[in-house]
Amino acid sequence: EDKVVQSPLSLVVHEGDTVTLNCSYEVTNFRSLLWYKQEKKAPTFLFMLTSSGIEKKSGRLSSILDKKELFSILNITATQTGDSAVYLCAVEAYAGGTSYGKLTFGQGTILTVHP
Amino acid sequence: EAGVAQSPRYKIIEKRQSVAFWCNPISGHATLYWYQQILGQGPKLLIQFQNNGVVDDSQLPKDRFSAERLKGVDSTLKIQPAKLEDSAVYLCASSSVTDPRYQETQYFGPGTRLLVL
Fold it and tell me: How confident is the model at residue B71 (pLDDT cuts 50, 70, 90)?
């Protein structure tokens, strides 16, 4: 059974701090790893990673994948109160012979940023 | 472009009652997904449609849950009868690329929050 584990489960920091969120996985037929941000509504897409060692960046957020060690990290620098949310990691696997991606999510990391 | 629409946003029912949720995906998106997200957990895939055909329903509790996408656009998810443990947020998502050579990104709707008393 595919498995995705995130750590820490929760994190409390102050504005300006840098945080690192972790995601490890065990998946058969790995296709990609995705990061989502979820506030009190639908998850919103942040990054999709398919290749090891290539960092993806968007403003203060960046992420990298290690396919050998089966993990990914999400970094947020100079955190702001608006970064407070649940950060979800999901792994996409090929679903049998159809090759349509099936997402398995981790339990999420709750990030709270205080002013 | 308009996002994924879901209704209702909230629903409170008693156990053993029935409930239905509706989803309208982003226009032109052929793939539609229903997820269940229990409080404190990540979303869990219930069923995936490609147009109006089912691709994966291995985690759908078929004794009480059913879903359909008759015309390959809108979809409904039904629970009959509901149990206390069905209390969760039900998320609908859609994606646009059907060719498996390309990566897909799933876009999520706002969800329906169900409370079973």
Answer: confident
Judge whether A35 and A89 are in contact, CB under 8 Å. yes
Residue A42, classified by CB atoms within 10 Å of its CB into exposed (0-12), middle (13-18) or buried (19+), is buried
Q: What does the CA dihedral B98, B102, B103, B109 come to, rounded to 10 degrees? A: -20
Q: Do A98 and B55 touch (CB under 8 A)?
A: yes
Contact partners, residue A22, CB within 8 Å, separation at least 6: A6, A7, A8, A71, A72, A73
What is the C-alpha to C-alpha distance for residues A25 and A67, in angstroms, rounded to an integer? 10
Binary contact (A108, B91; C-beta < 8 A): no
Give the confidence band of A98 by pLDDT, cuts at 50, 70, 90.
low
Task: Dump the DSSP string for B26-38.
Answer: PTT--EEEEEEE-
